[in-house]
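Field reference: sequence -> structure
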Amino acid sequence: MIDAKAVEALFTRADGSFLFARWGRPIVPVVFGVQDATMSILKGAIEAVVALADHKMAETDPELGANLMIFFLRDWAELTQTPNLDRLIPDLAETVARLQDAEANQYRSFRFDADGGIKAAFVFVRMDDAMAEAPAETIALSQVVQTILLWSDKAFLGSSPLAVLENGAAVLKPEIADVIRAAYDPVLPVAAKDASMALRLSARMAAGQGH
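Structure field:
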């Protein structure tokens, strides 16, 4: 099990601020740009991570219809050609330019409710050579794990939240699974800006280990 300091680092952003948030409503996913076979893999990954968190999914979101939108594309320029996407992503043209300059292959944008909980997430995956070589199951699990909580922008820069088994299959690292389970404990708030939240998460993780 990781200690409170390591938990705090997972939600401490590059500017030094602490920000934790989990979904405050059931998740309603929709996926664009993949074939049916990949769609079922993604749906399976979402269901598995939501079950791990003991959270809920729904058929529709009363405010947004779908609140977890996952887009797969070949080139970031495709985003500027997608109708109405600029309504969902503020400063879309600037964001696309930044992603192109960085040669990024993934990007996530979140929306929050009045309590600070996640109410929507938009996930974009550019299928560059590195992504194309990764199994669909690995990409799906990685993206869903990174969207189930508002992790720090640098949480997984040095290491993936996944581990690869000898047979090549990717699984969620046990310590990250523990953080997700603890984060959705009903006694904890849906969002927090104080680093003491890391201590509360760590305490819930320790309690969970006792079962």
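Note: The chain has a mean pLDDT of 93.
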